[in-house]
Amino acid sequence: MNKSQERSTDSAISTPNKADDDLHNVSDTFYTSQRKGSHVFRVRLDATGFTLQRESPSGVIIKEQKVKICDIIGARCMRMKKSPRNLAGCACVNPGTPAAGSGRKGTPSKCSMASKEENATDVGDGSAYLYLFAYVLKKKSLRSSLHRERTVLTLRFRSFDTFEDNMREADRWYRALRWQLHQTLEPIFVESMGEPRRRRILVLLNPKSGSGNAREVFNTSVAPILNEAEVPYDLFVTKHSNYAIEFMSTRRLDEWCTILAVGGDGLFHEVINGLLCRADWAQVMDSLALAIIPCGSGNGLARSIAHGYNEPYFSNPVLGAALTAISGRTSPMDVVRVEAKNRVMFSFLSIGWGLISDVDIESECIRMFGYQRFTIWTLYRWANLRTYNGKISYLLADEAEEPLETPLLQSEQMRKMQSSRSCTMHIDKLSNASNHRSMEFLPQEFEDVISLETSINQSFRSRCDSWLSGGSRRSCYYSISESIYHSVADDSEFTEPSISTGTKLEQGYPNFGPGSSLPGLDEPLPEAAGWLVEEGEFIMMHAIYQSHLGIDCHFAPKAQLNDGKIFLVLIRGGISRPHLLSFLYNMSTGSHLPEKNNQYIKVLQVRAFRLEPYDNHGIITVDGEQIEFGPLQAEILPGISRVMIPK
């Protein structure tokens, strides 16, 4: 990772002093009981995470293991429902207390949102349990790639005679962990008044994204992560095209700290444009972070973020994106202002004209193939190649320009909090042991202290009773003639009324957002300003400002989230089909771009450009969405938004 991608810690809530460190650094002695004998462990929680040290009878440390604080997302205090003979043999006891008996682990009872169970369920045992949820980087073999595995660290407290006293001790550890976790978050993610806790996030979900499984993805993979991390959220389902634009441009947003788009790049495009349609766009963009769960066909932004911060992607894209959404860390992200003939819009991914745009839009007819539709239609278009005539003018970027390293400054104005009707998760009955799961344990001396789960385990996770749950009493989905999904809930149940749902993007929204430094689209470009021109016959023009166009399309290897550059790729007419096929084939690895520009392929780093097609037909796309055909101009707006990044 280069220096421009290193995460700054300057934006943490505060720099804890030594007294705070001492107060929230906790440690104790734990014992395990096994057939081969008991073992003693020293467990310590500090700012770096959990340290587990196995000690010999003489007090010498034999082995040590670390669970990093950046991998831990949350914890729960609870009590077992099983009888004492079924309890695990891991306990926190005073020196000299006998270790617990061996046996199988029981299933924990449900816990409240306050992370502890108030009422005892088994008077025969007074132990309290602390479960910590972490997602650690693992490698199955030397040849395999890194991936994240769900880890549950279980600590049993039984130093005292009563459950209440033991729960009080477990809760002390829980609060110490929560304090340590909050130190890793930027200020906008924590309530500034009262007891520190995570602020709410707004979830916008497009049920028709990609292959149409966004609801299932959220229920099974995203909501459990939010529950484990104790991140409250409000969930809204998009009802029609441009719903997210209407929502983001008209609603009060001061209650939320993050906008999480569950869908494809098209939904994220609507979110960006809705925010920049507001009169208070500058304040809102400064106080909100944006995140995405990849459920679309391309998923270029999610792939670019994972690639830029070395986060595993292909093993489980949704898991990595969900963890990124709750990481509490952000990075500035460039946005491009696009001016067309009749409207202004904002783009975060790419602008295309020619071959790639043709593939993107025309392949909609085989959408059922998912991401493979792009490969199929690329081969079809390669065999039936088109050329387009036009002129492309551009301003070269400053080569010495460096990416921004600090996040956007938080607005000093206090956010006025308002009440809302929550669509948050509810903790339900935990699944029984019959659920299918795969368990992997550490070496025997650690097996009673921490267990590694290699697949999703419904234990410790609540069932979704949200607006997306198919079995929920709160929601219902039905298809009308246009196959558009609607929520039963009326708009008035949430916040202020929005503008008419019949209003379409083409009819225009208020033109707020950053202004342009370029001449008007109908005005000539001044040669003295350094504009350069490419004119003639083109196979394609594609401008991109993220590293990836899709999950396996590494289109601009040098692009970063906030480098202030547009990577403009031009392919001239006359290129041979084998040369073009090599270019298309190597896009998956990022080796398709020439080291030096040649007569057919040019890669230009620009800060603005203008496209003037000479033909009266063709396809132009912005962030994968087709817009009206005609001239347009675009310019980079460095770092005006902030996006969630991995810890």
Layout of SSEs?
Layout: H1 18-24, E1 26-34, E2 37-46, E3 49-55, E4 61-68, E5 72-78, E6 90-92, E7 128-138, E8 147-157, H2 163-182, E9 200-205, H3 214-228, E10 233-237, H4 243-250, E11 256-263, H5 265-275, H6 281-287, E12 289-294, H7 300-308, H8 317-325, E13 330-339, E14 344-347, E15 350-354, H9 355-362, H10 372-383, E16 388-396, E17 439-441, E18 450-453, E19 532-544, E20 566-572, H11 577-585, E21 601-613, E22 620-622, E23 625-627, E24 632-644
Parallel strand pairs: 9-10, 9-11, 11-12
Antiparallel strand pairs: 1-2, 1-6, 2-3, 3-4, 5-7, 7-8, 8-18, 13-14, 13-24, 15-19, 15-22, 16-19, 16-21, 17-18, 19-20, 20-21, 21-24, 22-23
Helix pairs in contact: 3-8, 4-5, 9-10
